Amino acid sequence: MESRNRHSALHDLLYNSIMPLMQLLRSVIATLPLATLAATPMLGAQDTTRARLPTVRVTATREGPRAPLDLPYAVTVTRPDPLAALRRAGVDELLFAIPGVALANRQNPAQDPRVSIRGFGARSAFGVRGVRVLQDGVPVTLPDGQTPVDVLDIEGADRVDVVRGSASSLYGNAAGGVIDIRSARPTADFAPYARIVGGGSTPTVTSTGAAGTAGPVGLTSSITRIVGRGYRDYSDQRATKGAVRMLLSPNDAMASSPLVLSARISDVSRAESPGALTRAQFDADPRQADALSVRKGAGKTVRQGDLSLVATRMLGDNATVDASAFGSARTLANPLTQAIVDVKRASGGASARVSGHGLVGERDVRLSAGADAQWLNDDRQEYDNCIGAVCAGGATERGALRKNQRELVSSVGPFVRGEIALASRLFASAGVRSDAVQFRLRDRLISATNPDDSGDRTMHAVSPAVGLVWRSTPLASIYANVSSSFETPTTTELGNKPDGSAGINPELQPQRTTTFEIGTKGLLSGTGVHWDVAAFEARARDELVPFDIPNGNGRRYFRNAGRTVRRGGEVGVDAENGPFSMRVAYDYSHFRYVSYVVGTTSFAGKRIPGVPDHALMTTASWRAGQTLLSATADLAGTVDVDDGNTAQAPGRAVFGLAVAQDVRAGGVRLAPMVALQNVGGVRSVGSVSVNATGGKFYEPAPGRVLLVRMAVTRDR
Question: What total of structural domains would you count in the chain?
Answer without folding.
Answer: 1
